[in-house]
Amino acid sequence: MYYRRSGKVAVNSSAGEENKRQLCELVEAGTVPGLVGYLDSRPVGWISLGPRVDYQKLARSPIMKPVDDAEVWSIVCTYVLKGERGKGLQHQLVHGAIDYAREQGVRTLEAYPVDKAERSHDDFMFFGARSLYEEAGFTEVVRRSATRVVMRKELA
Questions:
Q1: In this structure, is residue 93 part of a structural domain?
Q2: What is the mean pLDDT of residues 139-154?
């Protein structure tokens, strides 16, 4: 929910309950805020995607601000349970997101991965690594930071 809001957003223990409430409201209103990945009928992963305009914080971000006026969908978060990492599930989530976006008529999908030689702590990898998106056919469109890029995949 963090990127769906503008302005300062509290990141504390009470924010979690508010995030859950707002996420439920989105779903009840008919918005699909992302996809859940399952392994043996258990939810083990999540990927958040949707129209870039729905993620208000992106517009003001010095790194993730719009590259142009194109109507794109953004992937802003991926997550796999700690005990399930290293099994290729994040790749499956990205491919599922690509398929879902294509089914929705999306022409361009955008992501904002981390791009650095050394491994980052898992807490900072919710955007995913550049290699994750390269493997899925995304290409760099702009670099506004030494360690972050904007990547796109054309779906049409």
A1: yes
A2: 95
